[in-house]
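User: Fold this; tokens only.

Assistant: Input:
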Amino acid sequence: MANQEDNAQSLARTPLYQLGVELKARFTSFGGWEMPVQFSGITREHEAVRNTAGMFDISHMGKFTLQGKNLITQLQSLVPSNLSRLQAGQAQYTVLLNPQAGIIDDIIVYYQGEDTTGRQKAFIIVNAATTGKDKTWLLQHLDQNEVQFQDLSPEKALIAVQGTKAIKYLQPLVQEDLQPIKAFGHLEATLLGKPAFLARTGYTGEDGFEVMVDLDVAVKLWQTLHHAGVVPCGLGARDTLRLEAAMALYGQDIDDTTTPLEAGLGWLVHLDTKGDFIGRAVLEQQKATGVQRRLVGLQTQGRNIARHGYQVLSAGKVVGEVTSGTLSLTLGYPIALAYVPSPLAKVSQQLEVDIRGKAYPAVVVKRPFYRSKNRVTN
């Protein structure tokens, strides 16, 4: 018992932790943080996002702000995506790559434009468990004489308001009109009378906003939205929602040994429209010769759930491994992501998954497993 208490005390806590305690949330360790895994139950929370609105405390994620005259040019050398296309108020989901084109982290770059002196500004949001690693990598590769880097992680909170009716609950609290904001659009606004950064992004496959505010404003925002009827959600529902939308989880579906082309993130790789970047040579080679493995969507039968780490079989031989799996609460059947050899990655390919020592049929299906009809576009 003492060890459990020591472990809990060593975990970081967000500014909304106490509100979770008051709501009797169940907590778990995640990326060095003590985070709510569920409040009222994963099914209820999942359905709230798909049908109305739910909110997630994502304050554990890393938050960086960068400024400099050649900021975008410098960031261009660190990612495979062409950031020069971004206009002020637009964002790009992308990946930081190592020289082997392995994914250091998946990130979102929010470009805020340039001021009258020509200094460009951007926010970058990174995963909680990789915040320190990403910060070190960025500082190593950016010219700190030109780029001013600030880690806002300890002083800002993040709340994701997600769901078909997310904007209905959020708009009354925001001075600016949110309706014209497109997917991956963002703005600096006034929320509850205080400065806020709002982005039409999320990790659920539904419409919604991620809101960055000062710590005291976050507490008030959470309480106000809860009182209005927005359902508090934990990591459990966040995982089932993102998997239905086939969104990768860093550390499971992607990591520093997987390339974006292997992970089905080829749409992030803009070889034809940008210059050199770390990992480019490897991606050019993979583009020319093809990748040996691919991340695919799997559907299994009945209630047989293919979990993380389970082996994928073909003709009785192990050919791959499941990276994420769950029972889709929206679709009513088990879904999974897995790496398999490229020849076995075609849709309708019949495979099997070893579940507790028994082989169960699985079939490769299109991703995403679920696509919202309410999602806004870029």
